[in-house]
Amino acid sequence: MRLVVSGYYGFGNSGDEAVLAAMVAAFRRRDPRIELVVVSGDPANTRQVHGVAATGRGLAGTMRALLSSHGLVSGGGGLLQDRSSTRSLLYYAGVMLLARLLRRPVFVYGQGIGPVRGRIGRAAARMALRGAAYLSVRDQASLDAARDLGVQRPIEVTADPAIAMAITRASRGRIVVAMRPASDWIGFEDALVDALRDLARTQHVTFVAMDITEDRELAVRLVERVGAAELADYADLDELGAIIGAADVVIGMRLHALVLAAAAGVRFIGLPYDPKVESFAAAVGQPTVDAAIRGGALAALARAQWDTDVTAYRRKATELATRAERPADAILALLDDGLSA
Hints:
It contains 14 helices and 12 strands. The chain has helices at residues 14-30, 43-50, 59-67, 86-101, 119-130, 140-148, 188-199, 212-226, 237-245, 255-264, 275-284, 295-306, 311-324, 326-340; strands spanning 2-6, 35-39, 53-55, 72-80, 106-113, 134-137, 156-157, 174-178, 204-207, 230-231, 249-252, 267-270. The chain has a 7-stranded parallel β-sheet, sandwiched between helices. Strands 10-9-8-11-12 form a 5-stranded parallel β-sheet, sandwiched between helices. Helix 4 (86-101) packs parallel to helix 5 (119-130), helix 7 packs across helix 12 and helix 10 packs parallel to helix 11 (275-284). The protein is globular.
């Protein structure tokens, strides 16, 4: 069996790479012989890191991959949204529609959908989703967004695939911080710096750049402002997981820093620049703060997190990890039925 996988892969975003790694692992646990071809911005890197076949994002390569496959897996991650850009949404919807044009079934794997505000983007997303053979989304907000687009067919609510990553918990007195540029959170930086200077008196403060292109410059500036802090370099997802797994608390804007924290059972504080952060934090019962919080209050909240009972939190995270792999079962079952028919 051969499947093409489409998503934001090969661009140095560790969150999306974690999503891909989790999906590859889920499929291989169920069918060790499955062949996966990933549409990637850096095919050579994707082949090396994930041990899969890969092709570039050009039309010719994507068509060849689809024609030699049994179907397209679209996801995970937030692909059908125009917050980043309409162009990105149209690309991912276009790949889905191309698969249908080539008579290949489309399977949506734990995607985050929305917001989609533009008329053209809404039409493209609606067409792409309505034509899918199987639809699953990562949270209730994505289900609501799909319904708002006019997609009334059955949709399974699962979870972000990355929460099924295996990450070892090894607390070592560390605060891990994962920021990203966000125009409406610029004023928050002063409060964050004040809080981290306070916390650094008793904890090691470590920044991670989840997206190499977007996050590193901000992380370097914040490290310099905090003073007693470091920017952790990591070579792969295992090293990133070890950094997050060694934290007492993760403070993060980046969704997948929080998802990986939950996978390791590490408490976190979410900074919801985007509704997806608020949605995930609510799903596992972890706090969020808004951009108006003061540094003293943020430091106090971080310290309070160290003493909270994590039993319910870790149970919820485990439940989400189980749900996160449901799409792999559903997709393979549908393909088995179709191939044997």
